[in-house]
Amino acid sequence: MRKIRVIGMLVLAFILLNQQLSNACTNFLISKGASIDGSTMITYAADSHTLYGELYYQPAADHPEGAMRKIYEWDTGIYLGEIPQPAHTYSVIGNMNEFQLAISETTFGGRSELSSQPGAIMDYGSLIYVTLQRAKTAREAIEVMTGLVEEYGYYSSGESFSIADPEEVWILEMIGKGQGEKGAVWVAQRIPDGYISGHANQARITTFPLNDSKNCLYSKDVISFAREKGWFMGTNKDFSFSDVYAPVDFGAARFCDARVWAGFNKVAGGMEEYTEYAKGIVLQGGENNYATNRLPLWVKPDKQLSVQDVMDMMRDHYEGTELDMTKDLGAGPYGLPYRWRGLTWEVDSVEYCNERAISTQQTGFSFVAQCRNWLPDPIGGILWFGVDDTYSTCYVPMYCGITEIPECFAVGNGDLLTYSETSAFWTFSQVANYAYLRYSDMIKDVKIVQRQLEDKFVTYVPSIDKAAENLYNTVNEEQARQFITEFSRNEAENMTKEWKKLYHYLVVKYTDGNIKRESDGEFVRTETGMPASPIFAGYPDWWYEAIIKATGDHFKVKGNSH
């Protein structure tokens, strides 16, 4: 998620900051009791117009005394400084380590005066990947992350983190102290068992329990710091982290929290109560003039969720709601649920907006991290990983204990300016961008292959688990890791090959705006072997009517039409 850093932008209005950052990421958090199999899950869509889809790998390592780690800002590659290495660091696959600890994030920006901290070393991306090398549990991760920013300073703006281990799921929200002090103020809450949560570039924690360390942790100065700045005058129990450090406005609701609302709406009833808020209508009141109609931090799903249910939460364009991106004129004749950026636009000096959905065209990679406590750690954690647009990606299982990255996901196998025939990102981007041309028809073909592959992966995993666990218990961990590495690598490479076949199929079927005829899975030929006359699908009636409304008699056939 390569966002432009907000140093030096104090003069910008808060709404502009929110709109700049609102093209970023989406997370959902699933507690053990909310999943069908007792696993915990968190999701991530790393959305950026400059982020390439690849799977990072950091092997476990021992470090001599005095060894240092250089810190580079994840978004820009800027060198920030260095910190001491511990004696041993754990292996990390993407955003999950070998002990099934997983961390993801979304940026909420918050008060612009807190976005710059001179001399700070730890940016939000480095916090994630350094912590995954050093912590085994979610609580340990919170301790490591907050300790690092306290000691070395916090380089980024406001951030929400999702943190999961096989037992617990937490949301941690953090914002720096600006130029006056080093470090950050923060609060973390555990998602209650049986519930789900989510965040999407807007701080979500409001009031929180002050004396419940089992379920809530916070910095000692999270309230006093706000008092010193004159941002909060009430009693401690009424302090709201979000309302003080990142108040909601139209952009925060419509571009950010609306995505959480959409994900909740797919699995939980009662979300119609928050429709007006999702549309950007923020009501305020009470002694502190906080927003009064915002989404709850967590909800109870109508049923326990499978990993595929959670994948489907990450695939949404507000279908079936008042914000449905397939229904307005901007979707064109084929219901394309994407709008080319910017996020806002003007007509006659009046500002309008595009919707910002969970699924978007500029995604680099996304995942569902699944943590399972009934298996040995290297086998129990699965990073269901996909590249490009979440709606048309395919999530393939990458076990957290693997020791090699598939070539199709490897760092250095192409980038956003370098095409690679063996890159999964470029393969999936080809399919998605071609499908955008005649979306309502082509996406049906894409979803068929997507479902076939994901169903296959979900069906295979229990058998792979059992075989790997047997190797782990009867041979050794190394053999188990080799086995799951080969499985993960083979499935990722085979998936990419199948997606190339899908691209070739779409090109043949839909070339020149026509649709080839098919029968029993084959394109139809005449008795002499020639291609059968294709379907001239044209445009829907409503589109023709819109053209006539805009052009009058310009296209009207007059006189003899022969």
Describe the structure.
Residues 1-24 form the signal peptide. It is a single chain. With 562 residues, the chain is of the alpha+beta class. It has three domains: 14-353, no CATH class; 382-412 and 423-513, no CATH class; 518-551, no CATH class. It has 13 helices and 25 strands. The strands form eight sheets. It has a seven-stranded antiparallel beta sheet. It has a five-stranded antiparallel beta sheet with strand order 10-11-12-13-15. The radius of gyration is 25 Å and the shape is globular. The chain starts with 13 loop residues before the first helix and ends in an 11-residue tail after the last helix.
Low-confidence stretches: 1-23
Largest sheet entry: 7 strands, antiparallel
Oligomer designation: single chain
Classification by helices and strands = alpha+beta
Q: Give the overall average pLDDT.
A: 94
Helix content: 25-40%
Radius of gyration: 25 Å
Number of strands: 25
Count of individual helical segments: 13
Termini separation: 57 Å
The proportion of residues in beta strands is 15-25%
Query: Outline, from the CA principal axes?
Result: globular
Structural domain count: 3
Strand order of the largest sheet: 18-14-1-2-21-22-23
